Amino acid sequence: MCACYDLIMCSHYQAIKERERYRHHFGVEPPVEMGKHDVWPNYAASFIRRPKEATMDTGDDAVPEREALPGLFGLIPHWATDANIGHQTYNARSETVATKPSFRDAWKYAQHCIIPAEAIFEPDWRSGKAIATRISNVNGEPLGIAGLWSSWKSPKGLVHSFTMLTINADGHELMCQFHKPVDEKRMVVILPPDSYDDWLRATPEQSMEFMRQYPTDQLQSGTESPIQHSLLD
User: Fold this and answer.
1) Which run of H or of E encompasses 199?
2) d(CA 151, CA 135)
3) H or E element: which one contains 145?
4) Which domain holds residue 103?
């Protein structure tokens, strides 16, 4: 089956290291294994979803609205033969997510998740070289990135994985600065904190309502160092 991968976009982000910071902002207990702090495709990290018991709407008030799980950055669809596909499925274009084989089942069944992040990194090519630029919340709070999750049965057991949803960034004063001049400008979908539960609860028909640009004045950027990574060649 064809994986039909998406255009390279956000392949690198910083996860949250401090458990109390994670718990305070997202209102959920982080998993015991939080994974890497510096995250690249197929690295272990965490994601937040609505528990399956909550989706059954049993009326049990004891069931939390959110749960945090360990997973791999790069969605591994249920039909995959190995985990290597995750190196190319870490971003899902909102325009084609409903039809691409790698993502369409997760989108169809509204397997929504939130990826907790301190910051994302994008390459600034305006100098002629790829300069890694760190993008974070201007108020210092973590970012909650909209994503999709999936489960895959590996030879060693069940593996969870996730991908970040992306949208066009034309007209966004900050995010239009990144990637090569010939590349389409795109950005991940960053959720306002007051919409976290709405996203996790959203039906497939409601999902596109959340595919919006995050306000420019709520993000800040800072230059890091020249990028040396094959994903950005």
Assistant:
1) helix 196-201
2) 29
3) strand 143-154
4) 13-232
The total domain count for the chain is 1
Buried b / exposed e along 59-76 (16+ C-beta atoms within 10 A): eeeebeebbbbbbbbbbb
pTM comes to: 0.88
Of 204, 196, 207, 201, nearest in space to 55 by CA: 201
The answer as to whether 3 is a domain residue is no
First to last CA, the chain: 27
- Give the whole-angstrom CA distance, residue 93 versus residue 189: 10
Give the separation between CA 162 and CA 46, rounded to whole angstroms. Answer: 9
Model pLDDT for residues 18-60, shown as the tens digit of each residue: 999 999 999 999 999 999 999 999 999 999 999 987 766 655 5
pLDDT higher than threshold 60 for residue 194: yes
